Amino acid sequence: MRRMLAVLSLLLVAACGAEAEPVDAPDLIRVLAGSEIKDLEPLLRRAETEAGVKVKLTYTGTLDGAEQVASGRADGGLDAIWFSSNRYLSLIDGAQAKLSTQTKVMISPVVLGLKPAKAAELGWDQGPVSWSDIAAAARAGTFTFGMTNPASSNSGFSALVGVAAALSKADRALSAEQVGAVTPALKGFFSAQRLTAGSSGWLADAYARDPAVDGLINYESVLLGLRDPLTLVHPSDGVVSADYPLTLLASAPEEKKVLYGKLAAWLRTPAVQREIMTTTHRRPIVPEVRPDSRFGTTQLIELPFPNRRGTADELIKSYLNQLRVPPGTTFVLDTSGSMQGDRIDALRQALVALTGADTSMSGTFSRFSNRESVTMLPFNSTPGAPVPFAVPAGNPEEVLARIRRFAESLEAKGGTAIYDSLMAAYDRPLTPGRYSSIVLMSDGENANGSGYDDFAAHYRALPEERRRVPTFVVLFGESDVEEMSEVAALTGGAVFDARSTSLSEVFKEIRGYQ
Description:
Blueprint: H1 2-18, E1 28-33, H2 41-45, H3 47-50, E2 54-59, H4 62-71, E3 80-82, H5 87-91, E4 99-104, E5 106-114, H6 116-122, H7 131-140, E6 145-146, H8 154-167, H9 176-190, E7 193-195, H10 200-209, E8 215-219, H11 220-224, E9 231-233, E10 241-242, E11 245-249, H12 254-267, H13 270-280, E12 283-284, H14 309-323, E13 327-334, H15 342-357, H16 361-366, E14 373-379, E15 387-390, H17 397-408, H18 418-427, E16 435-442, H19 452-460, H20 464-467, E17 471-475, H21 481-491, E18 494-497, H22 503-511
Parallel strand pairs: 1-2, 1-3, 6-7, 6-8, 13-14, 13-16, 16-17, 17-18
Antiparallel strand pairs: 3-11, 4-11, 5-8, 5-9, 5-10, 5-12, 14-15
Helix pairs in contact: 7-9, 8-9, 9-14, 15-17, 15-22, 18-19
């Protein structure tokens, strides 16, 4: 029955794709967007009748999108971009020449949300609270929080910039010297982080599953939309806000510029602004529409942002290699006979890219980080022996080279024991004080050893701390979509599809969740 449903689902997707709008439709505007825009899809469907514009959204991460635009890869295939912020993009050399008109659509500051009992315990529900107060409590271990990865999500990047600017008491654009000076304080702050993610939506879901985490640093809109209400803390020394600029690309043809103007004007009409506020919990951008009572009366102070890309990149690298709780990652990798040829080559290349061979912007931020523990567990008819690597805090090149040699030595042969291998990964002892996660990559169905039901029973019998380890599943080749989706749902992970894109790109995307 599971397989029948999976086939029906794929047929439905194929049917929907067959009815997709042609790329040259005269009333269609093609927009590259951050995943945060997904909640606007129902509203945007009305733009066709109310504004005469059909909107086709293609989603990507904020930094990946910035790289596409700045490199010119977005030219021709897209007409506009829509990210939560253009701040990082504007720092990239040559990027401004790729952009035309920018129209801010809505506002959401990045703030702290806490469970009401914890906020009351700390006295943060009574009066002004600064980032310095929050950092002191984090360093003392009196509360814990989740936050997205600044290398893949704008909410995490905005939070990192905001905390760094506030703790350094910067009154102008954050400098590299200030980043270096504030690093010890930032390390204390991030010692309280217990959840990470590549997107705000997945972070909210992970938080809902983990009662041990006290709160989240995220967009105000995400926090207001959670099922269980949080007490929102708007730091008195300032925030970094998203203003969601719908931005026309300079390469867009004239007829698309007209569509852009219609869409931008429609989005800023009072009726649409009120609907955005009501349905997505974001603040209106136009003065004719006043924010309602959910947003409180606190006046937002915008903190200064870096004005050099080098400073922004250094801040992200410091977070990955020095500031955050380090990750502990296990890769459960299919090396069965069906992986022979191009598939095993793709796996080798994807792993080698994570050792620093990919020198693109996104590749730089996705390499194995300093202080990370990496375990490779290849499998075929049976689980292979786990091969551990410990990336040091400094001078990681020698260990990264060993991981590269291991990846290049992988060979394809034998059968496919997915669930015995996944159970072996979950049975490995956890290293305290790390984010632990598992990546499962297989190109086919389970053919040897235990089945899914055996794994599910084994997983449910594990101690609680091991059940908190998510499995990020990679669909590749002829993967069993239904069972792989069940693995991700059971373990609190996510599914990533490498059947229509490169395995290297998918592995880089997963790094945002580790």
